[in-house]
Amino acid sequence: MSSKSLTQLLNIDYPIIVAPMFLISNTKMIKAALQNGVTAAFPALNYRTDAELRAAIGEIKGFSNKPFGVNLIVNKSNPKYRPQLETLLELKFAT
């Protein structure tokens, strides 16, 4: 068990994670969080196509090297689960 704090593990200033909100979280929100010393996540389902998901991740990674998350729904309610997972793995976003 690591004795590091959340702020140390994620290299953030404050122990705050902006929650992934369906249809609300977007690149602007994630970038604002990263710029202000916290981290954030967005739902993969907020992006309707693979190209949009890739573009969002690329935009955020191009803005900051701080960590952020992608919330991937991994049950039958998400018919895009497998292609989204493949995209995240390809982009080395998840291991």
Structure description:
The chain has 95 residues and is an alpha/beta fold. It is built from four helices and three strands. A three-stranded parallel beta sheet has the order 1-2-3, with helices on one face. It starts with 5 loop residues before the first helix and ends in a 5-residue tail after the last helix. The mean pLDDT is 93.
Structural class by secondary-structure content: alpha/beta
What is the element string, with H for helices and E for strands? HEHEHEH
**Averaging pLDDT over every residue, what do you get?**
93
Sheet with most strands? 3 strands, parallel
Helix content: 40-55%
Say how many strands there are: 3
Number of helices: 4
- Judging from the principal axes of the Cα atoms, what is the shape? globular
Instruction: List segments where confidence is low: pLDDT < 50 over at least 5 consecutive residues.
Output: none
Largest sheet: spatial strand order: 1-2-3
End-to-end separation in angstroms reads 20 Å
Share in β-strands = 5-15%
Rg of Cα set? 14 Å
List keywords for this structure.
single chain, 95 residues, alpha/beta, 3-stranded parallel sheet, 4 helices, globular
List the helices and strands and how they pair.
Elements: H1 6-10, E1 17-18, H2 27-35, E2 39-43, H3 50-63, E3 69-71, H4 81-90
Parallel strand pairs: 1-2, 2-3
Task: Give a quick rundown of the structure.
The chain has 4 helices and 3 strands; from the N terminus they run H-E-H-E-H-E-H. It has 95 residues and is an alpha/beta fold.
